[in-house]
Design brief:
Length: 441
Amino acid sequence: MDMHVMEGPDPVLTRSDLIADPSLSAYEKVGGYRGLRRVLSGLSQDDVVEEVKLSGLRGRGGSGFPTALKWEKVAHHRVPVRYVVANGSEGEPGSHKDHFLISRTPHQIIEGIIIAAYAVGASQAHLFVKDNFSEGIRILRRAHQEALSAGFLGENILGSSFSLNLQIFVGPSAYIAGEETALLEALEGRPPRPRPKPPYYPTEMGLYNKPTVVNNIETFAHVARILREGPAWFRKRGTQKSPGTMVFTVSGSVAKPVLVELPLGFSLRRLLEDYAGGPLPGETFQCFFTGGPSFGILPAKDIDTPLDYDSLRAKGTGLGSAGIIVLGSNDCPVATSREFASFYETGSCGQCPPCRLGTESLAGLLDLVESGQGTIETIDRIRKIADMIKGRGNCGLITASAYMVQSLLHHFPDLVKTHLGDSRKSGKDRVPTYKYDHFVG
Ligand SMILES: Cc1cc2nc3c(=O)[nH]c(=O)nc-3n(C[C@H](O)[C@H](O)[C@H](O)COP(=O)(O)O)c2cc1C
């Protein structure tokens, strides 16, 4: 399936000249590695953290955590070894931006990683990429070699006293491997199983129990631009609390599935109408998963919600990694939620009993409802299990699966009931397409 690439009004990472050619020479022609040169020609570690803090950059991997806060924690630990890890896993259904950035503009990511390592005093960094993304692995390895040969990586970078070794780590493609502590486990050679937290977070005890920055790869790409152009330039886009741009992907029942970078706070309606071509012919919008399934449903009546962390949270959903899945009038939210419930069931690593059993039960019970074999008691059980399991595992997967189901019951109570006894009454059991493997344009 093809996803169209469009240029937004004022892109930072995806300007056409930045994504036309992934090579180092092309990147340098459009100002690449100028941020790093600026950093190494006189900024202190604290200066770099301060610029990221002033930019207001929030992580683009899902939770929107302030990037500088993480960096500060790691930089201020009094230990000699610290690590930087770039999360290029990208497993959330509907999210395609990280794979796009890796394949089209790998040096922007690598430049951001080098700057982050300088800022927190790390001499070893790892970039995690999935073993089933062979094109991305190839592109990253080439970019890595180019950066090494040009002196942007390795010993005494650009003649400074700063040295950094970067490993392109090819890891498991499981969804759970994208959770930051599961990813650290994989880097250490174990199966990707999330670690309990609290008490310790990766900023305190991360890779090999050393303070570790884990950021999404889009977050690092923004860092490269912030250190080149300055925080005020970055803040010209977006809102006060969600500054900058984000790379959105819109999939599902729209006329034109699209990848486009937009300022945060952009209206969902304008994204869908101006860039994604509106609903499929003859249909209307029914609802949206704005942050993939993990943040639940936004009903169509809220189409004017600005796409930023706080506005979406106020509506009971979230921005996540900006992968928006659209359900049209002929899609079935119950069938779609059942599909996502089984995604969580198979995605659970299984180590926490409430998650293993809870995701399995939710998927099974939703399947009963969707196939017309459910009763009012089935809905009650779904409700109880979702309430019971939320927050009870080592990571957010369990809460995401419970929240997704609760969101279905909250927004579509009548539709769920119409499925009891006869699933095909509505005649609409379509699940929107959210998997894409090619970018066009
Ligand atoms: C089940 C699960 C899967 C996740 N998958 C990803 C992923 O594929 N990519 C990613 O960047 N973050 C993912 N995260 C979030 C990471 O744990 C972490 O918050 C993120 O990498 C931090 O980067 P940021 O601060 O730049 O957003 C996932 C979280 C959970 C609970």
